[in-house]
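quick one: zinc ion bound model?
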Amino acid sequence: MKVDANTLVLAIETSCDETAASLVLGGTDVVSSVVSSQIEIHARFGGVVPEVASRAHVEALPHVVDQAIAQAGVSPERIDAVAATMGPGLIGALLVGVAAAKSYALAWSVPFIGVNHLEAHLYAALLDDPDLEFPLLVTLVSGGHTMLIEMRGHGDYTILGRTIDDAAGEAFDKVARYLDLGYPGGPAVERTARAGSAAAINFPRGMLHDGLDFSFSGLKTAVINHVRANPDVDSADVAASFQEAVVDVLARKAERAATQIGARGLVLGGGVAANGPLRERFKQIADSLGVKCSLPSREMCTDNAAMIGAAAWYRLRSDGPMSFDTGAFPNLALPVAQ
Ligand code: KG4
Ligand code: ZN
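yep, here:
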């Protein structure tokens, strides 16, 4: 199959709590992108309930796909391939998207592509900046992952560091829950932090001088201990100081990794990359290193289907269509160089 600037991919994302569909042309041109969030459904439980998520995907997906096609103003015959996230994520939620994508692909007699959700987060930055030069240092910070990745080319990755316990987004979510700031945690902490001082409390920077891996569970415990010992402390100061500790450790390790690999650009990806102070700090590092800084728009940082369509186009070009026997893989890892 010829894969070029005219190849139109319908992409579907259902790995967690967003039901999303998008049409992406030529790997980087987002023709339409629809995201239906389940946040309100899960908010009263304080977190994502997997079984509820799967059912909500089943209900929402056909409408979200119809909307993405309608917004693009194309007829289904124009679509050249259908992609869906095949992992990592919640197994029931993934299966909804994979089964739907295969059904559309079979009905329209076009290829199916299963996409790695982590790889897709890396491609979110390329949607805005298709001409980024390799090697790139990608900092992938989401609810489930925290990784420093050397990207030498399309599909060519080495993981330089990762969290040994909680993911950065998980730390935001847990601290928000403890401080009763609302759900989802990251945006709630950022909002609350605006009224506080980042220098109010000197929270620990886990493993700061210890290689390129991360640890955030000690920070979470330090927040809890501080609030217990100082019940009258201002939540805004706690939120701002906690956020500063996360940003500081991510930024300093990313800077070290970028220098180590001679990166030509810094890229942020994943939901936590929507965080304002983190984005500011990465711009400063890139400036001081004299390299490009690529920050996906906030909508492209959190889960969406446009990034799935972008990654799918590159995979279709390098590996061709995937077998319809392919399933869903809740623990799928980023494909790294051997
Ligand atoms: O990438 P994502 O949408 O889903 C996963 O693949 O995990 O990331 C969700 C995570 C959540 O932990 C959420 O609290 C965090 O990203 N997040 C933020 C912000 N917006 C979302 N964390 C800090 N600041 C934000 N503004
Ligand atoms: Zn994600």
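The radius of gyration is 20 Å.
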